Amino acid sequence: MAMRIVNIIGMGAVILMLCSAGTVTAGEQKYKRTVDRYTMPDVVLTDQNNRKVPLKDLIQSKTPLVVNLIFGSCTKICPILSAEYANLQDKLGGDPRKVHLVSITIDPENDTPKVMKEYLKRYHAQPGWDFLTGSRQDIDSVLKAFNAYIPNKISHYPLTLIRSPEDGTWIRLFGLLSSAEFIDECRKMGIQ
Amino acid sequence: MRKLLKFIAVPVTLAFVVLFSAALPMVQSASAEPPRSAQEQVKAGEQIYRNGILPSGQPMQAFVKGDVPVSGTAFSCASCHLRSGIGSVEGGVVTPPTNGELLFKPVQVYYKGTEQKFFPFPPRRAAYDEKSLAEAIRDGKNPDGVVLNDVMPRYQLGNEDMNILVSYLKTLSSQLPPGVTDSSIQFATVIAEDVPVDVRDAMLEPLQRYVDNKNSQAEFYKSPRGNRSRLMVEKMFTSKELSTRKLGLSQWVLKGSPETWRSQLEEYYRKEPVFALLGGVVNSEWQIIHRFSEENKIPCLMPQTDLPVISDTDWYTLYSSKGYYQEGEAAARYLNSRQDISPARPIVQIVRESREGKELSAGFTDTWRDLERREIVTVNLKGNETITNSFIERLLAEKKPAAVILWDGPDIKGALTFIAADKQKPELVFVSSRYLGKQILAVPEQARDITYVTYPYSFAQKVINSAMGKIAVEDESKFIINAKDFSVRDRVQNARLNSNSISQLVTMALMEMRGNYFRDYFLDVIGMAPDQTSPLFGRLSFGPGQRYASKGCYIVQITKGAEPEIVRKSPWVIN
Fold first, then answer.
1. Domain count, chain A
2. Is residue B421 packed enough to be buried (19+ CB in 10 Å), middle (13-18) or exposed (0-12)?
3. Residues 100 through 129 of chain A touching chain B, CB cutoff 8 Å
4. Residue A170 to residue A77: CA distance in whole angstroms
5. Quick one: pLDDT band at residue B413, thresholds 50, 70, 90?
6. How does pLDDT run across A15-30, given as a tens digit for each residue?
7. Which positions in chain B touch A79 (Cβ < 8 Å)?
8. How many beta-carbon pairs under 8 angstroms link A with B?
């Protein structure tokens, strides 16, 4: 039995060493914050209502934009990111003019509009939170534009991006945030 | 109940963490209900663990990351600890086991065979008892008082609900299942006796080769030098537990009519329990074997069938794709994406009354309905009914359809010729490449400009360099290929390629399981596996709870002329 545990540890340790998201201890800031600029590809994605969404229109909107990269059957990181979105919507009183929350799937084959719609329902999403999918090629191009490309959904990591409508810069939040931290980051971008 | 671990790098290799924290108010639940039987108790615990639903019917409530409220419907114990309770690693977060076998024993940390008695972090911990386990679930502290990672939710569970959950955890993955011993893991493959020999052999050979290779590797190291060689093999295998076990592969041959198959399966299983079923092939639907697997909780990995059971909730059978159903889905999505097709004109579906026709039609109809499109007109064809010119003339004159979905095969030359020659001809006609089989290139010349073929296989591949060397991956930049380079798929070829993929998946899964040979964990591990490349489908991609590995389908057209080309009209994923 003990040997089995050691093996588990060994496996975890190796994965840890390959994964830059893991080295955090309790009490300190657990996420990494940077300010970046990204050039988005000219692609048209599809939302949970099967509507076509040109990515450029989304980016050029005057409404502050928050983007995370998730997939519908993820059981660990994505539910936390989605819970943060749901919580933020509650805090903002569900006003879609204050912020546009966007989740972009990293599993376009499984995340059809139907799957995405059910996912949003599970989180009691209000208007102003959209879930987008597309062809794998288009999704890959979006991930690459955000410097977040991964060849495999299972090797994903928690990433949230907040765009300032004023100067087009993005706050890149790498890691999982508490509700207070997330709301604070949004507030810094004028979302309140 | 998710324990999120964090890691701390220790100079050489080991590292870890688990933190929990924050206390939540404890909610006392009413206990006016009549006492549950032991079985009901386990069922209620399973419902909490897997679905986050309390016996009251309400979702569990919790906080994650300290202050983010989450509901059990979004976030249950099984999300991170997985259905088997063995835990997972995802996104830099490690979740430790919570199964009955391990929870109530201390977890020791060893390095190079020596116990690290002063290792200060999880997973090293004292054994849980019921009280300390409840404290971990509510307050996020392990038996040593170490605060667990705040990604582990702090659940607001009353005493009675907590007792139910803890009772369930005691039973969870607490004993190795039938088919697994200290020295063996037994598999079987199900084959109907009327399956053509070449198909059977193509399905079987890669599986048998995998089992033989694995067993011969272990045998190879059993030299007179005994232990030393054994140590060698243990170091070479990434899973030493696997090196000490021999794999077995039985053939469960089903005879006679399908109505008798279930009892034959039960009899095979009674005589020789197996850990899982690998591959398998029959000439009809897989449903009987599917139900057998589901009800006996026996995993079944990628049977060679294009007629799987379509279910969002069944757990034990993993299919390579949804087969015919998936082609129907793709046709509906493609048609929906064509903005140039008038929504005012009806869609006519001509469906052969066969299992293939039925599944194609179901895939199309279900998806069309989900897309909230108007009703379609469905015309059924009897098993041996021939499509005549007058039948087509009448149908087109009466309905004036924008598109005809022709779920028939393999010989549809006549029907396509009639449709193409009709003055009321539709803008598009859909046919299925699986149903056409080798007749896919026999689409008549005059019908090619309106005929769209659902093609659920890899279209073109390119070789790229990867960390594992050169691999072939789907080339989505390619839209046109010469017909002579086009892969006309057949059952023998598909069976061989499918079994090759099974061998790869089983190799990975058994290594990854590291002795935790629980059936649910086998499925959990495959659900967490990286995507596999596939010469047949381009990519095989499971995911947590996903049960169909290949989910896309192209729409292609065949150009006119003596040297036709195949033109891809859609991406693999159509929205």
1. 1
2. middle
3. 107-110, 112-114, 122-123
4. 21
5. very high
6. 333 333 333 333 445 7
7. 70, 74-75, 79
8. 212
Instruction: Report the C-alpha gap between A89 and A102 in whole angstroms.
Output: 12
Residue B441 Cα distances to B110, B409, B558, angstroms: 62, 13, 7
**Whole-structure pTM value:** 0.88
Q: What is the reported pLDDT for A21?
A: 34
Contact flag B543-A135 (C-beta cutoff 8 Å) = no
Cβ neighbours for A152, distance < 8 A, ≥ 6 positions apart: B530, B531
Average pLDDT over residues B75-98: 86
Would the CB atoms of A179 and B241 count as touching at under 8 Å? no
Q: How far B178 CA lies from chain A's nearest CA (Å)?
A: 19
The total number of residues written for chain B in this structure: 575
User: HSE-up of B536 (CA within 13 Å, CB side)?
Assistant: 24
> What's the rounded Cα separation, in Å, for the pair B412 and B381?
13
| Contact in structure between B388 and B338 (CB atoms under 8 Å) | no
Contact call for B15 and A113, based on CB within 8 A? no
Q: Which two tokens stand for residue A187?
A: 């507030």
CB contacts, 8 Å: B17 with chain A: 25
The pair of structure tokens assigned to B110 is 């060893």
d(CA B529, CA B516): 16
| Domain encompassing residue A83 | 29-188
Chain A residues lying within 8 Å of B111, measured CB to CB: 6
Tokens 């909780």, residue located: B297
CATH 3.30.70.20 correct for B325-455 = no
Asked if residue B420 lies in contact with residue B413, where contact means CB atoms within 8 angstroms, the answer is: no
Name beta bridge partners: B250.
B188
- What letter does residue B531 receive in the DSSP assignment? P
Q: Does residue A177 lie within any of the structural domains?
A: yes
Tell me the one-letter amino acid at B283: N
Q: Give the Å distances, CA to CA, from A53 to A92, A134, B253, B539.
A: 24, 10, 52, 26
Fold topology of B176-320+489-549:
Rossmann fold (3.40.50)
Q: Which two tokens stand for residue B293?
A: 């697997």
- CATH number for position A159: 3.40.30.10
User: Which SS3 state, helix, strand or coil, does residue B516 take?
Assistant: coil
B38-171: which CATH number, 1.10.10.10, 1.10.1760.20, 3.40.50.2000, 1.10.760.10?
1.10.760.10
Q: Contact, A117 vs A78, CB < 8 A?
A: no
Give the C-alpha separation, A99 to A189, whole Å: 10
Instruction: Report the complex ipTM.
Output: 0.85
Scanning A39-58 for CB atoms below 8 A from B yields 46, 50
- The edge-to-edge listing of strands for the beta sheet with B403-407 is B377-381, B347-352, B403-407, B428-432, B451-455, B554-558, B565-568, B480-482
- Token pair listed for A35: 């300010």
Is A150's Cβ below 8 Å from some Cβ in B? no
Tell me whether domains B38-171 and B176-320+489-549 share a fold.
no
pLDDT of B108 over the 50 cut: yes
Question: Is A18 in CB contact (< 8 Å) with chain B?
Answer: no
CB B155 within 8 A of CB B1: yes
**How far apart are alpha carbons B148 and A179 in whole angstroms?**
18
